User: Fold these one by one.
Assistant:
Number 1:
Amino acid sequence: MLTRRTHISDHEEVFLRVRGPGYENPVCDAIYSLKPNGFWYAIDDRYLASLGSAAIGKYQYRVNLGETMLAYLSCAAAVREFSATFRSGEGIDWASVASVYDGVELNPYDSVVAGQVDWYHMWEYACGVVWRPGNVTLRAEGRIDRNRVGAVLRAV
């Protein structure tokens, strides 16, 4: 099955090139020290479901990663290896990750792993982050309406 990657925004137009220094240097916010700054996208509809009715009126975009060099974390062993390679204190040394990769994708999200790996549980669902989005393209899918949210909530 093809992975469906989406980005939800308050803005009708999203410009990947205008994102600030967080895209070239994935420094962590103090509040979310286990998550890097960057362009975030969701896989499938988990994020939309988590927003519920708050998603109504927002804009949804289909994300195409192109040739973006990501660390794909698709199983517990890959998460453990990534964590061992890039661990820094309680979290991950995102600057070291950025020296090798343009971003990271967790798919599928594994709740067992989330209970064992501090940084991983903060991501909450299958998703990804890119801090060098030069190869990423977005296709507008339109505004999210009540029917779309209802369909997603019924499906999860």
Number 2:
Amino acid sequence: MGLFTVALAAMLKCYSLQAALALDWRREHSKVQHKINGLLMDVVQLKTLIHVAELGSLSRAAHRLHVAPPALSRQIRQLEKELGVYLFERHGRGMIITEAGSEVLQHAIRVMDELEAIRCSVMGGQTAFCGAVAIGTTPTIAEIVTVPLVK
């Protein structure tokens, strides 16, 4: 019985060591997953950044994107949290992009351009044209000419 007790104690010690190692691995894996899941900028956040910077206002950007202003505000805050910098100075009349925000904005525009290039390259011959078009007109002509063009 003494040998059985020693063997059982050794097995339990080995099992508890394995369980401790597995638990330690799970904790580390959980920390990594939290970092990955909790801090990932996405295309929607970059698109929001571009529109807010262009329009200088969350409410105008929300109107353009057909999204509620609190949702856009949350996206900007999450991006700021991930990057560890303020991207905008907020005041009563809107938002002004910071120096760090301008740098991020340049990258965001390049990312969006690359995504559009991917779409265009894959579409190949499926569409006649691909890309952005800019048309300049006077305000009077714009009302008459651009409405049919958009349709």
Number 3:
Amino acid sequence: MRRIHPALAKLRKIVAAWPETNERLSHGAPTFWGGKKTFANFHVDHHGDGRVAIWCKASFEQQARGEPLVAADTASARPGDRVFFVRSREAAKAFPGKFAPVDAAILGIVDGVELDSPEDPE
């Protein structure tokens, strides 16, 4: 018999208290649904990262307000610097060999921007 991870058991207990929710496997992971839409996934060792994670969707309102995100700085940027950053899975790849639980990673500092102008026809 397969043992249930304690974090999954706790998540199931929380979700069970909400109306009109259910759990089904999606892509091999326990996935929680409200009606026809998913709102959370539970992962253990996803892509070999060795972590336990609960992925929850943020509402459009939360995203539009600019909720804080966790960003790792690999470029030693200072306040006010213009930076180049990546989000999502690419952010974690900024740290080879380690899983970084971040939303974004700063990969470089922008020194300047040059825009090409159209050729003068004269």
